[in-house]
Structure formats: C-alpha cells, structure tokens
C-alpha cells in the first residue's frame, strides 16, 4: 500500500441533511477548492457526473423540502 493510499481522505456520498457536509460545501464555495475538505464526495447514481451540480441539486431539494414540507421526488 502506498503512502498516497494511506493518506487518502475517506469517500462519502453528499448528504444535504448533514450539517458538516453543508459546511464543507460552503468552505469549497468560499475557497474555490476542495483542498481543505476532510472527505471526498462521491456522486450518487449513474446520471450525475459533475460533483458541484450534484451537490447544488441536493441542497435545492433539501431546502425546498424543508421550507415547503414536500416529499422528495426529484431523485
């Protein structure tokens, strides 16, 4: 196993309901880099390829459901 494998950040799927994940995204927006994020985000599903677009869509769904109390039917 290489040093890069040992130092690799854990892979996780973005969860908009997780406060830490939203903070990591906000940090990315401020700094314009994922370099300070302690995890690597994966894209869920096969029809999504752009990580930032996927996260933004998740956040729109999350805040829409939170504000209007609607069932998530977009994913």
Taken in chain order, the helices and strands follow as: HEHEH
Measured by DSSP, the beta-strand proportion falls in 5-15%
**SS-derived structural category:** mainly alpha
Distance between the terminal alpha carbons, to the nearest Å? 37 Å
Number of strands: 2
Counting DSSP H or I runs of 4 or more residues, the number of helices is 3
Radius of gyration, whole Å: 14 Å
Major sheet: 2 strands, parallel
**Residues in helices, as a percent range:** 40-55%
- The main sheet orders its strands as 1-2
Q: What topology emerges from the helices and strands here?
A:
Blueprint: H1 3-7, E1 11-13, H2 19-31, E2 40-42, H3 51-68
Parallel strand pairs: 1-2
Protein described:
By secondary structure, this protein is mainly α. It has one domain. The protein is built from three helices and two strands; from the N terminus they run H-E-H-E-H. It has helices spanning 3-7, 19-31, 51-68, and strands spanning 11-13, 40-42. It has a two-stranded parallel sheet. Helix 2 links the parallel strand 1 and strand 2. The longest helix has 18 residues, at 51-68. The termini are far apart. The mean pLDDT is 88.
Keywords:
single chain; mainly alpha
Outline of this structure?
The protein has 75 residues and is mainly alpha-helical. 48% of the residues lie in helices and 8% in strands. The longest helix is centred in the C-terminal third of the chain and has 18 residues, at 51-68.
């Amino acid at each position: 196993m290489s040093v890069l494998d040992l130092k690799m950040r854990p892979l996780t799927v973005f969860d908009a309901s997780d406060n830490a994940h939203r903070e990591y995204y906000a940090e990315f927006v401020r700094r314009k880099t994922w370099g300070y994020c302690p995890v690597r985000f994966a894209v869920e599903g096969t029809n999504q390829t752009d990580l930032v677009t996927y996260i933004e869509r998740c956040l729109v769904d999350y805040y829409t459901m939170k504000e209007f109390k609607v069932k998530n039917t977009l994913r």
